[in-house]
Amino acid sequence: MRNVIKEYYDQNCEREWKRLEDPYARIEFFSTLYMIKKYFPENGRVLDIGAGPGRYSIELLKRGYKVSLLDVSDKCLNLAEKRIKDLGLHAEEYICMDIKDLSNNICEEYDAILLMGPMYHSHNKEERKKILITCKRLLKKDGVILISYINSFGVLKAGVSEFPDIFNSLDEADKYLGELKLSAQEGFTESYFATPNIALSEVESSEFKVLSYAGAESFLSGLGDVVTRHYIENRNIYLNLLKLAVERCEDIQFRDATEHLIIVAQK
User: In this protein, which residues make up the domain named Methyltransferase (predicted)?
Assistant: First the structure.
């Protein structure tokens, strides 16, 4: 993975920790936990790839899983280790490397894998395929993987309120109707966006069996300002919206137009 991505996360590890505390981002967080509870085995070893500062690893550890964290950012892993130890929890390993560089000798070690970042930071299709093939090798028979992509359609929708300047040109807006590769200057860092069909095809071409997929923000996608206002003004409305969005995140009428796509597949 390119140095620019490592540098971004090294510089923003505290921000990444706090990001999922945002009222809108918590929809993504709880939808992901919902999918983990629904599709992961009840126990076993989990590899959290793109673990960042450890938000999901902590939740997995609380649920009794044996967890190893892998990330390109040593600063994020250091923060994760501190937060995990502060909670009296223990992770198996903290591995600082690009998943593509992991030894070929490691096979069928994990019952489940979280792949939450690498697929939306690689412009190269062959690199993304290598990531998926590596994960397949690491999983035990019938192991489950949860894969996150950034969804072009959802980003287009969010752009109406978050970065409306793209709509000054229809040619610019049209770019969000397919694959989109952004440099570090164009996006939050170097990033790759894909439509659900492209992402699902990529996973299936690596010989995974897709079990389901969800839209992390559900029917609240693109409504960050409104969701935050409800959080501030009426916490009951906010909590009910959060619960309903999480429970409906797999509904076909919502999942194809959210910023984050969650694909669940099996070896």
Answer: 46-143
Give one word for 207, left, alpha or beta, with left for phi > 0 and alpha for psi -120 to 50: left
**Alpha-carbon radius of gyration of the chain:** 18
Residue position matching structure tokens 């590769």: 181
- Euclidean distance between CA atoms 71 and 6, whole angstroms: 9
Give the integer Cα–Cα distance in Å for 187 and 217: 20
Number of residues that make up the chain: 267
Find the domain containing 83 and state its range: 3-266
Structure tokens at 19: 């990001």
pLDDT greater than 60 at residue 1: no
What are the tokens at 11? 């510089």
Residue 40 φ/ψ region, left for φ over 0, alpha for ψ in the -120 to 50 degree band, beta for the rest: beta
SS3 81: helix
* Predicted confidence band of residue 39 (pLDDT cuts 50, 70, 90): very high
Pairing of strands 209-215, 260-266: antiparallel
pTM of full prediction above 0.90: yes
CATH code of the domain covering residue 109: 3.40.50.150
Q: How many domains does the chain fold into? A: 1
Q: CA 121, CA 256: separation in Å to the nearest integer?
A: 20
Q: What is the DSSP letter of 113?
A: E
Reduced to 3 states, what is the DSSP secondary structure of residue 213? strand
Distance CA 25, CA 19 (A): 7
